[in-house]
Design a protein that fits this description.
The structure is a homodimer. Chain A is α/β, with parallel strands linked by helices. Helices cover about 35% and strands about 15% of the residues of chain A. The first copy, chain A, folds into three domains: about 350 residues, Rossmann fold, CATH 3.40.50.970; about 210 residues, Thiamin diphosphate (ThDP)-binding fold, Pyr/PP domains (Rossmann fold), CATH 3.40.50; about 180 residues, Rossmann fold.
Chain lengths: ~800, ~800
């Protein structure tokens, strides 16, 4: 069928009547005109008079190359939406083509409803053009400011994962996803095609990938445009898709071909959904359709500039004509603009003529007004069980052991159960949900899986709400798409490997920051990370798995967005998790171990402690001014600190110690830097103004210094943490290798309390004796001294 | 042919004679035995007496599941090497299977030559077993400690990119690359298959991907194992590969099938190379062979433990039998070990019997002794032109403009030219070499490209030495593989998007750190980044492209590895680049802009300045103790600082200013923390002990605070830098938005010099006037005030 369409010549048969073809082509011309206008013009929007150099912006910014293709797709999706009353959004991978999406939302009316100053008139068009890439105006990419978008697309690679995230649990939604052929070379995108093994046709919506093969990146051809149709077809088959090719540079032919193809793929999607939803015979995983749209880069733009080919080459990528000191360039731009015959499309007042405007969908069917793309508007709060019901009973501090994430797992199981009907909560993780001890959720839901199954598999379920795939990129991308369309989720990940999505986190944090300043963008659920299997208990995997730096990365994000929690025990983890799942518009990072560890706080104390963010642990502290503050953040550092306190008390009966535990890392920053920051008086009440502070920290020590550098007692804060020493060894040896062990912390305290100076020689001797004993024991037994693990904190 | 092999039954025809089959099977049993021994045993290595609980390690660590497959592949590659005298290395994607590679290098003798204490005897075997995952022993993964490895494999996804990097410019080398089917789900790996479009058969070696489809990850089936053979075949075709399937769980059949398949694929590889090298007719890009090896996870291990299936399931992933308080488990482990009939394979002294041992290659043909896997041993220094020949003439500071990276481009062109014959230098970048103004290299070499070409393409060349693909993962992975096999390179990248490879950088930095402590690992060329198109000049792309955080990430790496340079102008960039290209075993990050900017130092001054790492710029400073130190690091901050100094001098004639520029960021750290750190006296000589320091910084301000927190004058250091404010706006507005502009810096100085306190009200008024004027101008003109760009620094 495709071949037939391609063979057909001008005016050949196709689903579009001649009048419809004419009007759609007009609509496309209008979108292209408005796109060029945005890139170039600061005045004279309707070309009422000859173009002058003063009409052209001084700084020419924008990406023309991808834009006409995006405009074409938008116009054709509009037809499909109108004809079939579709609930559809578009994810625009080539987000650099900002002017195209702005133009289309303007033409359909969404833009003006969102930004009333940009009227659908001559004056509005003038402002529309001028604001683009203009200081104080709008960015050049599709961005949070763009109505209908859930995807920035400045950093390439995440469109398809976002599209799947949006489609999950939205059975009536179709997510059209335009993928640039440049973007398709990235790792994240290359992996994303396999997302179709995790989308369940009865429960989830459909994703329609449209690979826009315009052939070039900034300076090179794209790989997928140069492997031939046969190989590309096999690649798509291998990814589980049926490709439909639309190719050409003759608009009439491409219009008919694209329209016919869209009709076909919609039919396929509906057939797949009907089969799956109506109990028809199950043929296994469906082969979902996708479209390859092969049109020239910078289509309808200048063919040749300064004697060099532009249209259909990489030279069309950004601004095809520049340097308007050359009058020939100005003339060429004018010809280009005139070629769209805007006077046929807009009336003299600048209003889009009704014969074209009427092609657009109306109301929420317009992609620029679809509420799924402003997910906060659809957000329903998560139903949360009382986390106190899952608390560990702690008869006395250090009196009982529990695996924190397993306790959380019980809470998550109940959360999952409570929200099964609402279908708005999922867990995401790279094959590690059970390894991270959250497997209790499998009591109420399984792992999503549409591929083949075998008898030995466990918990695989087409309706599963746990998303496991060995790709942190997919976990993150799916979750982002899910959140941005108004749902909730949690990503549990090995701490070291969450760095794989550093750059995705950047982009999401930027999105949240910008959205916060856009009144019509409603708040969405926070992006919640549970980092477990953390640096201090990767002793079996070794150095490659030992890296606590993700919290450093997040701490660089804007204070309005970044939240970091280091709960010291299971009850604190419960309290923190409950808080995070209720929060909006944040990136919450929770770091918590999965190993059975000693517990410190009963649930009421845990709630009070986590609410304050940091506090003196009175049960382990002496009243009044201490000799030394033993501070800690993180579960393993807390354990070592408590053990150090015990050692100090045993050996120095009259020592006065204050134990301060920090759960919410951002309390360390001044209030001027972060809303969670303690005011200076509260900070001093914890850390004193002049006493030595021995701070045992989960991550790199410098992070504490960075957060506290403005604090009065900063010079006295002595931090121990990870210093990049690791290997496959025992858990206790890990803290020894990094000088975070109890013996070292105790010695640190003795060395820094002036009145204990006389004890230093003896303390050092004791320290070295303990370390030597440890080293000898592990070399002989391959495991830690029993006392390390049997230890109990005693007051 | 494959089908025929699969149909054949036991003892069916195949390339292996019955005796060869028996011996190879014995060799495999030996490797498996040694693998299980490493995971479990701390004594009784040859099972001379019944296994006792005391013989078993207390902490059982390791990954059994992937290991028998790795052992099988190793034994079969050995046969191929011996029969064809191949120069071959293996990259082991499932690096968790450490015991397998250790076992094989031990069996072939490489291990003992590298580590003489691990003799090929009973005692050696005892130590071999005990050291594995033992404190002070060896890590559980394939690691720098493992002979023959260039790949850790703890973090999954990078094996295939490393393999291609190793193969480039090594025409006689074959790189076998084992890819786990779990790893295959990652983004980096999914993109890596397309590397075959960048490998040139006459010039480069061959990569033989072996996808080990053992079906399961930690807890789930793998995607590629559950899409059926047809889809997997199409996927590989789509990636440009011809797959050959080897499937089964009967060792005899699999041995014959794998041997036959290896013969076939080697024949294919040689045919491809012969065609390309001997001027035979060019059929375009070859379809390279690859192997899909489908064998049970944990093959030859226990089938059922505690009533649950283990072999062939995810339960075989790590340690299949644990908890030896159950005596049945001990018996089962003993049976498992005995099943390999080690007494047939090793003589009573523990020596591997000659009839098996003789199957291994010898000397450098052994994969554990191949010098390519210890690249430093093959490293030849790069021939470098005199960078002074490319210097910008700077008649006076601020007297001339130059685009720093374009100047570097000239130097790189000469470097490329000088090393064309040695064929050991390449540039890597995601489609941005020209965008980053390094296009002068195209005078001497093109961009590697084996896919289709079109008339409009420029600089594509099968023999090109510039590697461009829109995947930072591939650029990084290829470069790592290239460096680890003893060559040189530079990765130029947009600053914001280099975060995509944060996690790869972590793993490479860890590799370098560990290698530094391994005497037989020879130093390799440093991993050099040029981060350009940086945060301050992404004004046209906006916030998504604005992120200077990569240097924070690198600053967390160990001081022995991390180097960060912020050259303020073109001549400093030349000096720094020359230094980096000569260095070994570092990660060098250079941040430099590509826009034409004012130049400050002549080449001799630049060399002196860069050698010192930081210095007073006397030409801009007053002699003696200053009122204020105006410090800067980075090209844009330096420009703004110089402009601020001019403003201050114009307005406050008697002000005493010292300008300090920092090129090598690590000089800020104390010497105790970093070898580049200035000693405290030198630091004080620059920054004073008590004067206010206004520090204009390229990145996040907190990085300077973090590096200087131990410095005496730290409390007086006031840092301006990126505070996450950005959008599409003018270049100068970017610095204004982040309070890094000249007006703000000048005001900062006035506000902090006590004797100028009386001037503060007036200075603030002037500041606001300037900012308002700027804002009004850009809102009206869409571009910066002419004076911003026309500015010249005057003393």
């Amino acid at each position: 069928m495709i071949a037939a369409i391609e063979r057909s010549g001008k005016g050949a048969a196709g689903p579009l009547s001649p009048d419809m073809l004419r009007r759609m082509h007009g609509y496309w011309r209008a979108a292209n005109y408005l796109s060029v206008g945005q890139i170039y013009l600061r005045a004279n929007p309707l070309l009422d008079r000859p173009l002058e150099i003063g009409d052209v912006k001084t700084r020419l910014l924008g990406h023309w190359g991808t834009t006409p293709g995006l405009n074409l797709i938008y116009v054709h999706l509009n037809r499909l939406i109108v004809e079939h009353d579709l609930d559809m959004i578009a994810v625009i991978g080539p987000g650099h083509g900002g002017p195209g999406i702005v133009a289309n939302t303007y033409l359909e009316g969404s833009y003006t409803e969102t930004y009333p100053a940009i009227e659908r008139s001559r004056g509005g068009m003038d402002r529309l053009f001028r604001q683009f890439s203009w200081p104080g105006g709008i960015p050049s990419h599709v961005a949070p400011e763009t109505p209908g978008s859930i995807h920035e697309g400045g950093e390439l690679g995440y469109s398809l994962a976002h599209a799947y995230g949006a489609a999950f649990d939205n059975p009536d939604l179709i997510v059209a996803c335009v993928i640039g052929d440049g973007e398709a070379e990235t790792g994240a995108l290359a992996a994303s095609w396999h997302s179709n093994k995790f989308l369940n046709p009865p429960r989830d919506g459909a994703v329609l990938p449209i690979l826009h093969l315009n052939g070039f990146k900034i300076a090179n051809p794209t790989v997928l445009a140069r492997i031939g149709r046969e190989e590309l077809t096999e690649l798509m088959h291998g990814y589980g898709h049926e490709p439909f090719f639309v190719t050409g540079d003759d608009p009439d032919i491409v219009h008919q071909s694209l329209a016919a193809t869209l009709d076909t793929v919609l039919e396929r999607i509906r057939a797949i959904q009907a089969t799956a939803r109506n109990g028809l015979p199950d043929n296994g995983r469906p082969r979902w359709p996708m479209i390859v749209l092969e049109t020239p880069k910078g289509w309808t733009g200048p063919k040749v500039v300064d004697g060099k080919p532009v249209q259909g080459t990489w030279r069309a990528h950004q601004v095809p004509i520049a340097d308007f000191t050359d009058p020939e360039h100005l003339r060429q731009l004018e010809q280009w603009l005139l070629s769209y015959r805007a006077d046929e499309l807009f009336d003299p007042s600048g209003k889009f003529r009704e014969e074209y405007a009427s092609l657009a969908p109306t109301g929420h069917r317009r992609m620029g007004s679809n509420p799924h793309a402003n997910g906060g508007a659809l957000l329903r709060p998560l139903a949360l069980p009382d986390f106190r019901d899952h608390a560990v009973t702690v008869p006395e501090a250090g009196g009982v052991k529990a695996a924190a994430t397993a306790v959380l797992g019980d809470f998550l199981r109940e959360t999952m159960a409570l929200n099964l009907d609402a279908a708005n909560f999922r867990l995401f993780g790279p094959d590690e949900t059970a390894s991270n001890r959250l497997q209790a959720v499998y009591d109420v839901t399984g792992k999503a899986w549409m591929a083949e199954t075998a008898a030995v598999d466990e918990h695989l379920d087409r309706n599963g709400r746990v998303m496991e795939v060995l790709s942190e990129h997919l976990c993150q991308g799916w979750l982002e798409g899910y959140l941005l369309t108004g749902r909730h989720g949690l990503f549990s990940c090995y701490e070291a490997f969450v760095h794989i999505v550093d750059s995705m986190l950047n982009q999401h944090a930027k999105w949240l920051k910008v959205s916060d300043g856009i009144p019509w963008r409603r708040p969405i659920a926070s992006l919640n990370y549970l980092l477990t299997s953390h640096v201090w208990r990767q002793d079996h995997n070794g150095l490659s798995h030992q890296d606590p730096g993700f919290i450093d990365h997040v701490a660089n994000k804007t204070a309005g967005v970044a939240r970091i929690y280091l709960p010291p025990d299971a009850n604190c983890l419960l309290s923190v998790a409950d808080h995070c799942l209720r929060s909006r518009n944040y990136v919450n990072v929770i770091v918590a171990g999965k190993q059975p560890e000693w517990q410190w706080l009963g649930i009421d104390d845990a709630v009070r402690h986590c609410t304050a963010g940091a506090g003196v642990w009175n049960f382990a502290s002496d009243a009044g001014e201490p000799d030394v503050v033993m501070a800690c953040a993180g579960d393993v550092p807390t354990l070592e600190t408590m053990a150090a306190v015990m050692l100090l008390r045993e050996n120095i009966p009259n020592i006065r110690i204050r134990v301060v535990n920090v759960v919410d890392l951002m309390v360390l920053q001044p209030q001027s830097e972060h809303p969670h920051g303690l005011d200076d008086r509260a900070f001093e009440a914890l850390f004193t103004v002049d006493r030595p502070v021995i701070f045992a920290f989960h991550g790199y020590p410098s992070l504490v210094h960075k957060l506290t550098y403005k604090r009065p007692n900063h010079a006295n804060i002595h931090v121990r943490g990870f210093k990049e020493e690791g290997t496959t060894t025992t858990p206790f040896d890990m803290v020894v290798l990094n000088d975070l062990d109890r013996y070292r912390l105790a010695l640190d305290a003795v060395e820094r309390v002036p009145r204990l100076r006389h004890l230093i020689p003896n303390a050092r001797a004791q320290y070295w004796t303990a370390i030597e004993r440890h080293k000898l024991y592990i070399a002989e037994h391959g495991d830690d001294l029993p006392e390390i693990n049997d230890w109990r904190w005693i007051r």
